[in-house]
Amino acid sequence: FDVSRPPQIMNSGHLWYPKGSHMGWHTNGLAPGWRIFINYAEEPGKSFFRYRDPATGEIITAWDKQWNLRVLRITRRNPLWHCVYADTNRFSLGWMVISEQAQAGLAGFAKRIQKKVSRAVAHLTPAPSS
Q1: DSSP assignment of 108-121
Q2: Residue 81 CA: distances (Å) to CA of 43, 65, 84, 126
Q3: What is the DSSP code (8-state) at residue 126?
Q4: In angstroms, rounded to a whole number, what is the distance separating the alpha carbons of residues 42 and 87?
Q5: For 74-108, how does the pLDDT look when each residue is reduced to its tens digit (9 = 90+)?
Q6: CA-CA distance, 81 to 25, in Å (whole number)?
Q7: Which residues is 48 bridged to in the sheet?
Q8: How remote is the C-alpha of 113 from its chain's centroid?
Q9: What is the pTM of this model?
Q10: What is the dihedral of CA 51, 54, 55, 59, to 10 degrees?
Q11: Which residue, 29, 56, 65, 105, has fewest beta-carbon neighbours within 10 Å?
């Protein structure tokens, strides 16, 4: 990271996966940046983080020990498809590290969404009577 311009760090999820639960395949591609996850599995070897290696296409399953730390890079051009499964109680704390460049892109995206929502609301609001 460029330390002359410190990144913004945001909460990206505090999750509890009860036994038999999962989070399906996804990329988080609309919010690029780095992700940091710390998770705790009540019973080691009974939950995992699975991902598709963007370079090779290989599906990799990383079985959880009791405590786990994972750092992932999320990009739009080369998405990191990933999912989670838990056959035990699994607790996950996540943070998103956003660079200045990504912040500018997210701000533009937010402005476009805000304009679309404003237009949609304007169509739903009755015109004032004269």
Answers
A1: HHHHHHHHHHHHHH
A2: 25, 21, 11, 44
A3: P
A4: 10
A5: 888 888 999 999 999 999 999 998 765 555 555 66
A6: 6
A7: 63, 85
A8: 19
A9: 0.70
A10: 30
A11: 56
Percent of the chain with pLDDT over 90: 50
Residues β-bridged to residue 63: 48
Give the C-alpha separation, 93 to 14, whole Å. Answer: 5
Q: Check if the beta carbon of residue 30 is closer than 8 Å to that of residue 102.
A: no
Q: Which amino acid is at 116?
A: K
Q: Which amino acid is at 101?
A: Q
**Spatial distance between the Cα atoms of 17 and 24, rounded to a whole number of angstroms:** 12
Write the CB contacts of 58 (distance below 8 Å, at least 6 apart in sequence). Answer: 52
Q: Are 20 and 86 in contact (CB under 8 A)?
A: yes
Q: In what side-by-side order are the strands of the sheet with 59-63?
A: 21-26, 82-86, 47-52, 59-63
